[in-house]
Design goal:
A 7-stranded mixed sheet has the order 1-3-2-6-9-7-8, with helices on both faces. Helix 2 packs across helix 7 and helix 5 packs antiparallel against helix 7. The chain is of the alpha/beta class. It is about 30% helix and about 15% strand.
């Protein structure tokens, strides 16, 4: 199957991740693709929390300063993985930040206390994540810092979901479906970063990497075992499913019995960035090389199509 125009029907400019200045008034594309136009592998990488275009109106409505509001951003994870891939596989990346709309949540995982109006019937108002301030439209960033001084209009939240959340997931679903049709399997590596320390926890307990497969449900065990083996072989401390087993993307799209595999990879931010200043440090390049080794080994893992798909192709 050709992959050009039928791939995801992206407009040419949406293939770029050139982020504008914060004074840019025009709403940006909700996602971008990095990497080859015609991939030769069933692998796709994603970075739903690395968006760094903060709309001026959003910054004006927030009570946080420009540095504090970025505390939950997966800083430069899209650049880390895309540069490590070196064109071997594509990566879909968020443009808008997690503090604005969280793409790794259910579409309407909303906290009623955030809004001036009542939630619509389709909203999941019982979500524990939303109640904790980390729903589809977050109430706070990392370290428990509240984004807004008070309630906001529900219409603003619904606009973000319709204009940013849904287009991202529509593109992701379409790409995975096309990949599955071409290769018999589709593998998504969902890429994230995590703070080096956790609130209310003893310092120094965070591993270098956390590999999440929803406790064996979201992907073939060969993928998880490969990631753990390679990373430990590179000298990293690796945890499996603790404290992160995988979010909405891993849970929702991971259906190994249907040929869809999703593995979440969390990177300790201390490995590549100054977390206080939110800037890269000298460890980025070494980490990039090692992430490239990990990506290469994962993509070399042989996964068989499900028997039902195999028989249908004959």
């Amino acid at each position: 199957m050709g992959r050009g125009k039928t791939r995801i029907h992206l407009e040419p400019e949406s293939r770029s991740c050139m982020f504008p200045s914060q004074s840019e008034p025009v709403p940006q594309k909700p996602f971008c693709f990095l990497g080859p136009d015609r991939p030769t592998t069933p692998f796709l990488f994603s970075s739903p929390h690395s968006g760094r275009y903060y709309p001026p109106q959003f910054l004006a409505a927030s009570q946080l300063d420009p540095l504090a509001i970025r505390r939950s951003e997966d800083f430069m994870i899209d650049m880390l993985f895309s540069s490590a891939l070196e064109g071997r596989a594509p990566l879909i990346a968020a443009v808008y930040p997690r503090a604005y709309v969280d793409l790794n949540r259910e579409p309407y995982e909303l906290d009623a206390k955030m809004f001036r109006q009542a939630l619509p019937p389709r909203a999941n108002g019982r979500s524990l994540r939303a109640a904790g301030g980390l729903g589809t439209i977050p109430r706070m960033v990392s370290e428990g810092r509240h984004i807004y001084a008070g309630p906001i209009d529900l219409s603003e939240a619904l606009w973000r979901i319709e204009s940013i959340y849904h287009p991202f997931h529509e593109a992701l679903r379409r790409y995975l479906a096309e990949t599955l049709a071409q290769f018999g399997i589709a593998v998504l590596i969902d890429c994230h970063s995590m703070p080096s320390t956790a609130r209310n926890a003893a310092p120094g307990l965070r591993p270098d990497f956390v590999v999440g497969d929803r406790f064996g449900v979201s992907c073939a065990p060969e993928l998880t075992e490969c990631a753990v083996r390679v990373l430990r072989g590179l000298g990293y401390c690796v945890s499996r499913n603790k404290p992160y087993a995988g979010g909405f993307i891993t849970e929702h799209y991971g259906r190994p019995a249907a040929g869809l595999h999703v593995l979440q990879v969390e990177v300790n931010r201390a490995l590549y960035m100054d977390e206080e200043a939110i800037r890269l440090h000298d460890g980025f390049e070494a980490l990039r090389r090692n992430v490239g080794v990990l990506a290469g080994e994962l993509m070399a893992t042989r996964l068989e199509p499900p028997a039902a798909l195999d028989e249908a192709a004959e």
